[in-house]
Specification:
There is one protein chain. 16% of the residues lie in helices and 27% in strands. The protein is of the alpha+beta class and 231 residues long.
Length: 231
């Protein structure tokens, strides 16, 4: 039987205890598993795990939950002003995104991770490599930064106009806003766009908007496209 070759994490890849989010426990799969949270963890946060066959693999926290021993009786005592010692455990669900192989193709592990293994906060380099972000191109439509990171996100215009595209979100989720951003980027690249706009939401693209407010600088400035828009 051929001996399986395993990878060892490089010394430079080892992270400090501050980067450790939790420990894998319970039933462990190759595409999902649970962790006992030992550090600070947020839903949708990107994490990384070392796999013996694949190296560093990118994942994402799909849910973070807190289990406590606070029952109905203890809650009543707490409401009456009594001091109650509440014991709690925080756990999180991890969804495996994958890794890039030697050909640069996105792959998923074929064997499970190991229980007791550390899960760490993902670094920007791994996120950009696996998700294919942070690369500027002549046909890229810039739509903002990845949430929680200073990583620019671009959509390839050639791929966008050659295939069907849908924008789905709940009411107030920003569908109209991101649609406007994409239209602006298409106009910047001299792509012809026809908009069926019964509510009159997009004729405002003709005039420059207000200066963005907030501490985060997205490296954008108000622009108007009156010379390129016909209503």
């Amino acid at each position: 039987m051929q001996e399986l070759q395993t990878l060892e994490p490089m010394e430079d890849d080892l992270s400090s205890s501050e980067d450790i989010i939790g420990i894998i426990y319970g039933e462990v799969g190759a595409l999902s598993f649970k962790i006992s949270v030992t550090g600070e963890a947020h839903r949708n946060e990107y994490v990384k795990m070392f796999h013996d066959e694949c190296g560093w693999v990118l994942g994402q926290l799909s849910e973070v939950s807190r289990k406590t021993d606070l029952n109905l009786e203890k809650a009543r005592m707490l409401s009456e002003g009594n001091e109650i010692d509440i014991k709690e455990k925080v756990s999180a669900d991890v969804v495996v995104i994958g890794y890039r192989d030697s050909r640069g193709l996105l792959q998923s592990p074929r064997t499970p991770f190991k229980a007791g293994q550390e899960v760490l906060r993902a670094d920007d380099d791994l996120i950009m490599d696996v998700l294919g972000l942070g690369k500027k191109s002549d046909t890229g439509a810039y739509i903002g930064y990845l949430s929680g990171h200073d990583i620019p996100v671009e959509m390839d215009i050639n791929s966008m106009v050659q295939k069907h595209l849908s924008i789905l979100a709940k009411t107030g989720g920003g569908k109209s806003y991101i649609t406007g951003v994409i239209i602006e980027e298409l106009i910047k690249h001299d792509v012809t766009v026809i908009v069926m706009d019964p509510h009159g939401e997009y004729d405002t693209l003709a005039e420059p908007g207000p200066e963005p407010k907030g501490d985060r600088d997205f490296n954008v400035h108000p622009m108007g496209f009156a010379d390129k828009i016909q209503v």
